[in-house]
Amino acid sequence: MSLLQVGKLEAFYGASQALFGVDLEIAEGELVALMGRNGMGKTTTVRSITRMLRSTRGEIRFDGKDLSVLPSFKAARLGIGLAPEGRRCFANLSVNENLMASARSGPWDIGKVTELFPRLGERMSQSAATLSGGEQQMLAISRALMTNPRLLILDEATEGLAPVVRQEIWAAIARLKQGGQSILVIDKGFSELRAVADRCVILARGQTVWTGTPEGLTREVETEFLGV
Ligand code: ATP
Asked: How, if at all, do strands 151-154 and 80-83 pair?
C-alpha cells in the first residue's frame, strides 16, 4: 500500500479551479520529485495534501486514511511534516523555541536535527529573523522533522539560496532519504532533483502529465513539460 495516494485531485480557490486531475503516489521510503513550470499547481497540490486548502475533490489517502475530510492540524498529526514555500519560521522566536514549538515525540529531536544541520546548533539562542536565508531553510526543514513526520514535504527546497548552501540542503535531503525518510520535494533545480529522486511526477496546467523514473525523463519530456 502507498503511504500517500492522490487520485484525480481537483482543487479550487473560490470559484477558480487550480487543479484538474492530479495523480501522485508515494511509497514508504520513497523520494518523489513534484515538477512543473511556474504556476502549474505544485504548491496547490501540497496545500491540498496538507489540507491548508480544503476546497478539493478527488482522492487523498495517507496511510489508508481519507485525508480529504480532515482539517490541516489533523493531517499534521497523522504524520505529514511540511517545510513550506517561503519558510515561515516564527521570526521573533529563537531557533530553539522554533524547534520546540513543533516538537512531537519520536526519533527526531534537537540533537538529531543539529547533527543534520550543525550550523543551527551554533545559533540556538539567536532569533530566527537574524538567520541567513539558508539557515532559515535549515530551520524550516528541521521544524518539519521535529514533528517526526512519516512524510516530509519540502516546497521549494532551495529557492533563493546561494549555490554552496543549496548543495548543503541537497546533501541533507540525500541523507534523509538514506535514512528511509519518505519525502515529496519541489524545487527548480531539476538536475539536483533528478539526482536524488526515485520517481518524478510532472504537472502541467493543474494535471499530472508524466510520471516515471529520473532515467526515463528524456530531453523530449523535459522540453515538452518543463521548458528546459
Ligand atoms: P510556482 O512554481 O510558481 O510556485 P506552482 O506550480 O506551485 O507554481 P501554484 O502556486 O499551485 O503553482 O498555482 C497553480 C494555479 O493556482 C495558478 O494558476 C495560480 O495562479 C493559482 N493560485 C495559486 N494560489 C492562488 C490563490 N491563493 N488564489 C487564487 N489562485 C491561486
From this structure: parallel
